[in-house]
């Protein structure tokens, strides 16, 4: 059995093909090299490709580096501080100059935008249309329109990712410019929403925190879903 010589606990660095390549990070969806992988026309996304799947299978079938296992066991033996243990995970993303975050548990997936369909005779400032997600048509909501973020702070052509959220079997998709990463926040660590943010959907934001030097508005999941349902009527 092949033994891994290194494992980064925060990334899938050892995830490579049998030849030691990671084509998905080169000319695949996560890479910048050209020409793009010709298989993308068939599989759409690298996660649907058998080459990526086989590389992942080898990763989990391989034996872990003994130093990594030892470090992992040592980390787990350390008592977690109460402030960390009582915190919640949020996923931060960017819309123009606005930084927002949604509870990670609500996110079904983050991917590139799929095929979209406009809805005739509907105001598209909030309900942009429907997006095809594995054969299911999901309401495509403009978070800018929902929160009153002015158009001057957004560039529609720069929406490269979509965040699919699910709550009580209701599914919605938002297009965003960039997904920044995960952060853990204790409820008592959030600051109150500034009064000046009233035009930016204050009713949907339950608190503000700081992440990577930016103020991030943490969205209230239930209020967000309720607002999304409202725009469908």
Please tag this protein with its features.
six-stranded mixed β-sheet; 6 helices; 30% strand; 11 strands; 2 domains; disordered N terminus; 233 residues; single chain
At the fourth level of CATH, the homologous superfamily of the largest domain is CheA-289, Domain 4
Number of domains: 2
> Which radius of gyration do the C-alpha atoms yield?
20 Å
Tell me the CATH topology of the largest domain.
Answer: OB fold (Dihydrolipoamide Acetyltransferase, E2P)
- Portion in beta strands: 25-35%
Q: How many runs of DSSP E, i.e. beta strands? A: 11
Give a written overview of the molecule.
The protein is of the alpha+beta class and 233 residues long. The chain contains six helices and eleven strands. Strands 3-7-8-6-5-4 form a six-stranded mixed sheet. It is globular.
Topology:
Layout: H1 40-43, H2 50-61, H3 66-77, H4 82-85, E1 87-95, E2 98-103, E3 107-111, E4 116-117, E5 127-133, E6 136-141, H5 143-147, E7 161-167, E8 170-176, E9 178-186, E10 205-211, E11 214-219, H6 221-232
Parallel strand pairs: 2-11, 6-8
Antiparallel strand pairs: 1-2, 1-9, 3-7, 4-5, 5-6, 7-8, 10-11
